[in-house]
Design a protein that fits this description.
alpha/beta; OB fold (Dihydrolipoamide Acetyltransferase, E2P); Trna Endonuclease, Chain: A, domain 1; 2 domains; 17% helix; 43% strand; globular
């Protein structure tokens, strides 16, 4: 995936979850921040934020925050709408060896009014999560979630039910920052999510963890699924 014509800005503050004030070309503008998580370990004044600009006259906020660059150079994709596209692209290109077939997106399913991110061949259920948390005590370990997530727990319950029916079910974690080598569940942030993860594993839900390659060149961002990561032990 290529994000074209990005604009370089500096973070001033993030607030109300979906709003971000940045300095762009010497002016302060408000950008849409498409991320419902805490963005813990990413939010620090002065970090570089790469934006895209919309020409849609009906949009209230013309700028969208896409990528953040930390002071050590680490790049992280903060737009949580992108991982679904990245995984779909990875499947179609054969980069994700565990999954193949015809893909449908956002299909209604389950008993809790859910939509599966990707449904393959009508019997492979894939829920996709964007992972951007890495804490100072485990600096190269990506962790999820970065805040309590009842929605994430619901998705695990739905996947468990599909696995028990004999379908394939995957919880797919996209490690969307460039400095991590392994992955773990952040049980200290959301112990209930960890419990649901263990229950789902017993039911037959598989965990897949892949990182992404993120490169910035000539005002464009290249971002794509790279390789599978191990879980932290």
């Amino acid at each position: 995936m290529i994000i074209k014509d990005i604009l370089k800005s500096k973070l001033i503050k993030r607030y109300k979850r979906f709003l971000m004030d940045v300095e762009l070309d010497g002016k302060i503008v408000t950008a849409h921040c498409p991320n419902s998580g805490s963005m813990k370990s990413l939010i620090e004044e002065g970090n570089v934020v790469y934006l895209t600009k919309s020409d849609n006259p009906n949009r209230k906020l013309k700028y969208t925050a896409e990528i953040m660059q930390l002071k050590d150079g680490t790049l992280a994709c903060i737009n949580t709408q992108l991982p679904n596209y990245l995984v779909e692209e990875g499947i179609r290109k054969g980069k994700i060896k565990e999954i193949s077939g015809d893909i449908r997106r956002e299909v209604k399913y389950g008993e809790e009014n859910s939509r599966i991110d990707l449904l393959i061949n009508d019997n492979i259920f894939v829920e996709v999560k964007n992972v951007t948390l890495a804490e100072t005590n485990l600096p190269s370990v990506a962790q999820f979630p970065d805040a309590k997530t009842t929605r994430g727990a619901k998705h695990l319950r739905e996947l468990s039910k599909e696995a028990k029916k004999g379908n394939k079910a995957y919880n797919f974690y996209v490690v969307n920052r460039t400095d991590c080598k392994t992955f773990k569940i952040a049980e200290h942030i959301d112990p209930d999510y960890e419990k649901e993860s263990l229950t789902a594993a017993k039911a037959g839900v598989k965990i897949l963890v892949y990182n992404t390659r993120i490169e910035i060149k000539d005002n464009n961002v290249l971002i794509e699924i790279d390789k599978r990561l191990d879980q932290y032990k």
